Amino acid sequence: MRNIRLNPEEYKSHIFASNIFKKTNLDLSIDYIEDNCEFCFGFTVDDIKSNSRSRNLVMARQIFHYLIWAFCDKGKSYIGEKYNRGHSSVIYSIISVEDFYSFDSLYTKRFTDVINKLSK
Questions:
Q1: Please, is 89 exposed, middle or buried when counting C-beta atoms within 10 Å of its C-beta (0-12, 13-18, 19+)?
Q2: pTM score, two decimals?
Q3: For the chain, which domains are there?
Q4: Rg of the chain over CA atoms, in angstroms?
Q5: Residues 32-72: tens digit of each pLDDT
């Protein structure tokens, strides 16, 4: 299992040093991410909080968790409680974003699209 004890700044530079985060200077808040959730993901915040396991919703939920963790400096337990998940699910989401981003072109495109939409 990956070491996830890095703080968000170290983690961002570790994962996406040459890609997303150096190209964008995003200053996101939880409210901003929630307000734009449907625009970016096609799902409401209630959908993100739901127990559905459809592939598209799971992908959106993982990216949603990652963005809040990386940009809002919120802990994994806080995110889990706020969105009806355990902290271990949030950890899995963060790891999944890194793993899928590196080898899944659909996931990479979806993540990049969300970052681009949020940066407008």
A1: middle
A2: 0.78
A3: 29-118 (1.10.1750.10)
A4: 13
A5: 999 888 898 899 999 999 999 998 899 899 999 988 988 88
